[in-house]
Write a structure and sequence with these properties.
The chain has helices at about 10-30, 45, 50-80, 85-115, 125-150, 155-180, 180-215. It is built from 7 helices and no strands. Pfam families: SdpI.
């Protein structure tokens, strides 16, 4: 396949647009001043220009790096004809992950600037509820995968159901965490989020392997 045969039109949104947004958006965030419409807008960044500048620059760097890595990966995955759901999953997970990173990082910067060294870092209820909603979204997406794909994609359907089950289990745990007091909420959420991340990454690798074996 030659370069001119690449599908710049039919799969542009999936393979090219999101990486370009991450790169161009990251470049813009490097110099953007505090405003109400563009950049890493969190309670911490909006309340302090210094926190805004530092948090936006760090998040922007990660956004550019991820976009640069994602673009050739997507092109390679197209040329090798990997299942398209791999790219779709990355398009959803990566922006959400960058947003969560920016939220936590900006909160820590705000605490450091205020010299609150004698108080432990506290996970806010809003962050716990945000992760809970992401888990619910994951459940619906993967349940839909089970019904959308044909029987020939049985490995993909099984992988989707396992991820949905993980989403149900951890959604319940996250919802319980949100009802706890600050110290207990932070302790439980950090533990549950760590395991949620580990299980999701491991099963994603298994899913990619199964899909490659079955669909190649």
């Amino acid at each position: 396949m030659s370069f001119k045969d690449l599908p710049f039109l039919d799969v542009f949104l999936i393979y090219y647009l999101v990486p370009f947004i991450l790169i161009i958006g990251g470049i813009g965030m490097l110099q953007v001043k505090q405003n109400e419409w563009f950049g890493l807008r969190t309670p911490a960044t909006l309340s302090d220009p210094e926190v805004w500048d530092k948090a936006n620059k760090v998040t922007a760097i990660w956004s550019i790096v991820v976009g640069i890595v994602l673009l050739p990966f997507n092109i390679t995955s197209y040329l090798l004809k990997w299942p398209i759901w791999i790219q779709i999953s990355l398009m959803i997970v990566i922006p959400i992950g960058l947003g969560i990173f920016g939220l936590i990082y900006s909160d820590r910067l705000k605490l450091q600037k205020n010299d609150i060294t004698d108080k432990p870092f506290i996970i806010s209820k809003s962050l716990v509820y945000a992760i809970f909603l992401i888990s619910i979204f994951t459940i619906f997406v993967n349940i839909s995968v089970f019904f959308v794909f044909l029987n020939s994609f049985i490995a993909v359907r099984i992988c989707g159901m396992v991820v949905a089950i993980l989403g149900i289990v951890f959604s319940i745990l996250f919802l319980k965490d949100a009802s706890l007091v600050d110290k207990d909420r932070t302790k439980n959420f950090e533990k549950h989020f760590l395991w949620f991340t580990i299980f999701t990454i491991l099963w994603s690798l298994v899913s990619v392997g199964l899909a490659y074996v079955i669909l190649r």
